[in-house]
């Protein structure tokens, strides 16, 4: 399996298989949303689109980066979301990088969204599909965010049949700029606990696949052992 690692702005074609990585925090939060019972996560194009969806579907749960805001139920923090009951709910997520990355490759036949908490499940799904090439979309830091790149490289290694030691990759993420900002409370709408939650390797047994449904980019959980997954 050939792997390439690109920032959002570096995407020039539609990949056959895309893995969109956002460790801190979009796709850690999305995984927690599924763990707390969410049926699906709708990836919104903009804050205005998220609010419009909320207006049409008052029972949907909206979340965003940054501090709380009118019309939004939650913020993009795994620590602040993990005790929320989302059973059967639709979550609308809009973030600065993660959701943007997924929407940038929405025409790809297979789009997976990943972070360390679903790393092995994502790699397992890739091994099952055995694509010739996978494009890893490194969403943070204009494609240079150390936590996202480390996670992407780790998943690529696992998907390619190697057994890399996760330690060095997790340490890279832990020493990243994003981790420092979250720990220091620089980012609004976050908790110092977010870093530890984002670095829980393989916390969940499912992968997450996104596809267009009724004009919306919808993220759902899938399992590598499910013959109908992705």
Automatic annotation (TrEMBL):
Q: What class of enzyme is it?
A: hydrolase
Keyword entries, A-Z: Hydrolase, Magnesium
InterPro entries assigned to the protein according to its UniProt record, in alphabetical order: ComB-like, ComB-like_sf
Q: Which domain of life is it from?
A: Bacteria
Write down the EC number.
3.1.3.71
Q: Which cofactor does it need?
A: Mg(2+)
Listed PANTHER family: 2-PHOSPHOSULFOLACTATE PHOSPHATASE-RELATED
Name of this chain's protein: Probable 2-phosphosulfolactate phosphatase
Organism this protein belongs to: Streptomyces griseorubens
